[in-house]
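Posting for a labmate who doesn't have an account.
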Amino acid sequence: MRRVVDVARIQTVNWMTIFGWPLVILAVVMAFNILVFGAVVNDVPPDNRVTGALISIYIVMLVTHVQTMTQVFPLALGMSVTRRAFYAGTGLLVLVQSVFFSAVLLVLHTIEVATGGWGVGVHFTALPFLPDDPFQLWLTYLVPFLVMSAAGVFGGVVFKRWGSAGVYTLSIGAAVVVGGLVLLVTWQGWWPAVGRSSSTSPRSRC
């Protein structure tokens, strides 16, 4: 277990990349959205003041853990760290990151609701389809962090093993799968059911 913790600590040496830059990017993106919606507050109906920019921090997590495999992994192997210990340590770090960042989003959600969408009615963290229960809300923020981090690690593994060709093949394959699912749902006419499922979920309002 100590070896696993040591691997996680190796990765936190560059703490700005692991914890700092995701928060900086989140703050910049959020501030930009608040300013934009503040500038057009009289032109955009309250129900349309919804932004999907929250995904930015999840994308940062994905990119961060691609770099974990392409940059930190070779360094760790050079320090005689086993692959098993490295993956376990990375998993521990991902869990800590995900718990921390999801807690940050939960706090921002609380502030956003209390301030009426940062004073301009914008839905940045308090998206309309999110649950009201704090624990469910925290899990809703948490799970995508875990998924995107795992996707980043997997993408990094593919790059290390098969290079750019492997990454392009993986990306195309993922696009085909997603596109196929969209076509299937469209062909079967399931979109209304998907919409009803979203509309009947608990909502958080600013």
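Reply:
Got it, the structure tokens are right above this. Residues 134-188 form the longest helix (55 residues).
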